[in-house]
Design a protein that fits this description.
By secondary structure, the protein is α/β, with parallel strands linked by helices. About 40% of the residues lie in helices and about 15% in strands. The radius of gyration is 17 Å and the shape is globular. Strands 3-2-4-1-5-6-7 form a seven-stranded parallel beta sheet, sandwiched between helices. The protein has one domain: P-loop containing nucleotide triphosphate hydrolases (Rossmann fold). It is built from nine helices and seven strands. Keywords: GTP-binding, Hydrolase, Metal-binding, Nickel, Nucleotide-binding, Zinc. InterPro entries: CobW/HypB/UreG_nucleotide-bd, Hyd_mat_HypB, P-loop_NTPase. This is Hydrogenase nickel incorporation protein HypB.
């Protein structure tokens, strides 16, 4: 059976993007940087999470952020106040970052700073529950956020992001008592899609679960783990 034109075009786009992602990862590995791709629907709390993360660990790990947004630099400005480099990328009408866009961010980072001084690059992807998971950007791990306000069924209705995630943060848990929501059901639905994912319930407001999240990051940023891929 012959592929449709649209299907063939999509495969070509994904293949080209993957080549770019692999090239980006080579840069990160060369510099000893771990890259995390932070993904979620709009309003799940990505920027608030990054604010808390930067404050907590910037004295232990040297951090840079690549901030993706469709039109503004509002989130980038929020993060710059914490004294870390933030490279803003506007995607226009595109609902996700791709490897070429992130390559541009990497080149800017390398031009303005010494990249070998960094331990961690956090990529805040465009708010979308579908597209970002299909386009790698050179990350070493994918982190998905799911707010309790989004409901228990989202992992089943939008499976790709949850299947691809290495870590799943259930956010805004402080709101759970006010909603008809069951955290155990969310966890079970996520595990149905991805049995191996690490699940951490958190609240950026109360601090619940944040220490477990910070510890997970630190495990990803060990230099020997990064360079082991090149042996």
């Amino acid at each position: 059976m012959h592929q449709t034109f649209d299907a063939a075009l999509e495969l070509n786009l994904l293949h080209a993007n993957q080549e770019g992602a692999d090239h980006n990862r080579e840069h990160f590995d060369q510099w000893g940087i771990t890259c995390l791709n932070i993904m979620s629907s709009p309003g799940a709390g990505k920027t608030a999470l990054l604010e808390k993360t930067i404050i907590a660990i910037k004295d232990q790990l040297k951090i840079a952020v690549i901030e993706g947004d469709m039109t503004t630099e509002l989130d980038a400005e929020r993060l710059r106040q914490y004294g870390v480099p933030v490279i803003a990328i506007n995607t226009g009408r595109s609902c996700h970052l791709d490897s070429k866009m992130v390559a541009g961010g990497i080149h800017r980072l390398a031009h303005e700073y010494n990249p070998e001084e960094f331990d961690l690059v956090l990529v805040e992807n465009v708010g979308n529950l579908v597209c970002p998971a299909e386009f790698e950007v050179g990350e070493h791990a994918k982190v998905a956020l799911l707010s309790v306000t989004e409901g228990e069924d989202k992992p089943l209705k939008y499976p790709v992001m949850f299947q691809e995630a290495d870590c799943l943060l259930i956010t805004k848990t402080d709101l759970a008592p006010y909603l008809e929501i069951d955290l155990e059901t969310i966890k079970a639905n996520v595990k149905q899609m991805n049995p191996h994912v690490t699940i951490i319930p958190i609240s950026a407001k109360t601090g619940e679960g944040l220490e477990a999240w910070f510890n997970w990051i630190k495990l990803q940023t060990k230099k020997d783990r990064v360079f082991a891929t090149n042996l």
